Amino acid sequence: MGLKYLEHVKSVALFVLIMLSLALTFTIWTFTPSLEEIETPSQVDMAIGDNRTADEVVRPVKVLYHFEDEVTGTFSQTNIEMMLETIQRWEISDVQLFEEEAGTDVLKQYLQEPGRTVLYYPGAVPFPVFDVIMDITDNNLPESTFNRVVIDWGTEANPDSVMYFINTGSGRIYEAQVSDSELIEFRGDYVQQAEEYDRYVTDPNIGRLPVYVPEDPIEQTSFDYLLDETSASTFADAIMDNPAAEFAGDLQSEEFTDDSGAIMRELNGQKSINYVQPKAETSDPAIPSDLVYNSINFVNEHGGWTDQYVYFGMKSVNQQISYQLFFEGAPVFSNTTAVSLDVEWGIDDSIEQAFRYSRPTYLLDSVVETRTIEMASGEAVLEAVSRLDIDLETIEAVMIGYELTRSEDEQLIELITFQPAWYYKANGKWTRLSDESVGGVRLGLE
Could you say which DSSP state residue 255 is in? Predict the structure, then answer.
């Protein structure tokens, strides 16, 4: 009896051990380690700067508020950002073509009527891109573009619940609906606050459409910055396929080629690179929204957003798009140094890709010194503009920008200065107004 019982216990124990062994084997076979948190080294190595979304680079650079007896405005990115965050929560609906080709007088009326807020975009914005940034409920949006958004808040007793999207070049105007409650909230949160903003003035003789500037002198800051720089070879590794380097004809800079036939040249004097993929050249025009998405995605692929760049304009017929360096809420210009990120799109063997890409290689590192500068008043600036020896109707904009200059001292070559100055745009080109023409500048030290 005892022996049989012992045999039975041994059999049960053996069975349990076999089952445990099978269970452990199955667990080992089916175990999958969690790799979610691990990034591949190439992703980390190739990112030169940041990734950006459309709403971070497609933005208005100025907002004006038209009251019964005055116009106020701001180009402060903080103020504009707060307002945009509110508008992004609106439900915009029923986008409809309102005017096919509005004439100058009609456009002036839309852009100057009291009870309106006007958002100024430096480049034409395609509706599908705006839809990604804002909440438009319509399903089939047109591929049309606009460069002004007008919010019609009417009067407190009778708020107009409409927005207008205007292309000042073609005269095309679209109308869209927003709710009364959103407009009433907008009046309370932003219109009342805007009464305290700087007053803006215009001269009816300047520009086909009104060109507004701050009436009183504004204090701006001049900055000296140390530069950091990304090597051309890092850009080549990020953009090209197994690049090979050799010295360019000037023996001062490098040139990179790869198996696909792409060429990338370092332009030392301008602190930039220029990339070309000759096979991707095309004469087909671009769909505007695709051009925005494709260029942003292309720059995102190598984390190429190093400082603040803002969408500044496109020539969709040539597949060209430009993102301008901005500093302290104002565009940066320079005669010597690259200040824009330019992409020309193309296609090769049915694959859409960058045909040409030029951009700065530097990024801002740290502030060395700042100086406070009192800018000339808007009235003095408009007077200076009115004396220019050009057709005043061709003037599209007048605004404060920053001139970027580099130190000529060989030992301080990595030091750059951002100097605020007045600029005007005529026939698509930006030009600095001389300090003498606007009455000089007054300096202070911080």
Answer: E
Q: pTM here?
A: 0.86
The pair of structure tokens assigned to 3 is 């022996």
| Alpha carbon separation from 267 to 243, 272, 306 (Å, rounded) | 17, 5, 18
Strand ranges (E), 319-380: 320-327, 330-333, 340-348, 351-360, 362-374
Q: What does the DSSP 8-state code read for residue 269?
A: G
Residue 180 near residue 161, CB atoms below 8 Å: yes
Please count the other Cβ atoms lying within 10 Å of the Cβ belonging to residue 219: 11
Given a contact cutoff of 8 angstroms between Cβ atoms, the answer to whether 317 and 303 are in contact is: no
pLDDT band at 253 (very low <50, low <70, confident <90, very high): confident
In tens, the pLDDT along 201-244 reads 999 999 999 999 999 999 999 999 998 999 999 999 999 999 99
Partner residues linked to 201 by β-bridges: 213
- Give the list of residues 6+ apart from residue 122 with CB closer than 8 angstroms, or none: 61, 147, 310, 311, 312, 313, 324, 331
CA distance 36 to 150: 45
Spell out where 18-66 has E strands.
Answer: 62-66
